[in-house]
């Protein structure tokens, strides 16, 4: 579930708006029984395009983003919820700050609080960095959820270049026991797409 309605991590006005709408979302999420509430570096508009695009991230913006995430954790502790910060790729989401797997890992690990985890989207990691198994291992202590889709096309596993059965085998060997979700389009029949996802992760 999306964890906010509006806001940004790295400036005062955006941070205040993010905190306000994230609290509202957290309270709705609790009523719905949602386990994790998702965040991005900035709000996304139509087609996933960032509403406020940022090309240069300064040191001050990094510090502000970390401060904002600590404030999110304070609120999450009060509300009894968990937030995740998702990595995104710049081809689909140009101008999104703190988009990469490396950026998300840096922020979440520096905050290092149980109320904030990583939503590791391996579709985005494949496009942005590749090397999926090593990124899973690096992020492992902070992963709250893993999302998958194949590339190209953002379709179900076994339609593109990613060996998701190999990734699943590696995750099992690492001891990962958290949730894995498919955020993808079906290449054909939706039931068959779900079966392909289940087959890829049946290890």
Molecular structure report:
By secondary structure, the protein is α/β, with parallel strands linked by helices. The protein has a single domain, classed as Divalent-metal-dependent TIM barrel enzymes (TIM Barrel, Alpha-Beta Barrel). 44% of the residues lie in helices and 11% in strands. The protein contains 7 helices and 5 strands. The protein has a 5-stranded parallel β-sheet. Helix 1 packs parallel to helix 2 and helix 5 runs parallel beside helix 6. The longest helix is centred in the N-terminal third of the chain and has 21 residues. It is globular.
What form results from the Cα inertia axes?
globular
Spatial sequence of strands, sheet with the most strands: 1-2-3-4-5
Task: Say how many strands there are.
Answer: 5
Quaternary state of the chains: single chain
Strand content: 5-15%
The fold-level CATH name is TIM Barrel
| Main structural class | alpha/beta
What is the gist of this entry?
By secondary structure, this protein is α/β, with parallel strands linked by helices. The protein has helices at residues 12-32, 59-79, 101-111, 122-128, 132-139, 164-174, 190-200; strands spanning 37-39, 83-86, 116-121, 143-148, 180-182.
Give the key terms:
203 residues; alpha/beta; TIM Barrel; 5 strands; globular
Task: Give the SSE map.
Elements: H1 12-32, E1 37-39, H2 59-79, E2 83-86, H3 101-111, E3 116-121, H4 122-128, H5 132-139, E4 143-148, H6 164-174, E5 180-182, H7 190-200
């Amino acid at each position: 579930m999306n964890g906010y309605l509006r806001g940004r991590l790295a400036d005062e006005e955006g941070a205040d708006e993010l905190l306000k709408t994230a609290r509202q979302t957290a309270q709705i999420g609790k009523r719905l029984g949602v386990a994790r509430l998702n965040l991005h570096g900035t709000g996304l508009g139509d087609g996933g395009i960032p509403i406020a695009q940022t090309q240069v991230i300064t040191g001050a913006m990094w510090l502000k983003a970390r401060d904002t995430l600590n404030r999110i954790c304070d609120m999450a502790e009060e509300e009894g919820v968990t937030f995740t910060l998702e990595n995104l790729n710049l081809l689909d989401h140009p101008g999104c700050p703190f988009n990469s797997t490396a950026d998300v890992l840096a922020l979440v690990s520096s905050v290092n609080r149980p109320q904030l985890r990583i939503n590791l989207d391996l579709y985005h990691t494949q496009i942005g960095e590749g090397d999926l198994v090593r990124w899973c291992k690096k992020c492992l202590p902070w992963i709250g959820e893993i999302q998958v889709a194949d590339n190209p096309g953002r379709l179900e596993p076994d339609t593109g270049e990613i060996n998701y059965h190999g990734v699943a085998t590696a995750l099992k060997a690492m001891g990962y026991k958290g949730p894995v979700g498919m955020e993808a389009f079906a290449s054909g029949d939706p039931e068959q797409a779900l079966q392909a996802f289940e087959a890829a992760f049946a290890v």
